[in-house]
Automatic annotation (TrEMBL):
Name of the protein: Transcriptional regulator
Alphabetical list of SUPFAM superfamilies matching this protein: lambda repressor-like DNA-binding domains (SSF47413)
Pfam families, sorted: HTH_31
GO molecular function (one): DNA binding
HTH cro/C1-type domain boundaries: 36-94
Domain of life assignment: Bacteria
Gene source species: SAR86 cluster bacterium
Length: 100
């Protein structure tokens, strides 16, 4: 018997209402962290280099980018991070769609 792929496992798990609700609730935090990592890498910076630019420790950058972190970054921290890699933050609000 073949092992399930991550894609098939995710699809099966998301059929459960409680799992889907939790997944949707956590999605924005995961998206922000994935974006931070991608932009830092596009800028050609390591966590150590970015930490130096921000006058902080590498562990703080690692924690900020970690999807497992229980700490929510302050908006000012995200703005400083963005500026250090040549970006600015744009916040958008979208309506909640019923049925999701």
């Amino acid at each position: 018997m073949a092992r399930p792929t991550l894609k098939s496992f995710k699809a099966e798990a998301l059929k459960r209402k409680a799992v889907k609700e939790e997944y949707l609730e956590l999605a924005p935090a995961y998206e922000v962290r994935r974006k931070l990592i991608a932009l830092r890498q596009e800028a050609g910076l390591t966590q150590e280099q970015l930490a130096e630019l921000l006058h902080t420790n590498k562990s703080n950058i690692s924690r900020l980018e970690s999807v497992g972190s229980t700490i929510s970054p302050k908006l000012s921290t995200l703005a400083d991070y963005a500026q250090a890699i040549g970006y600015k933050i744009k916040i958008d609000f979208v309506p909640i769609q019923s049925g999701t």
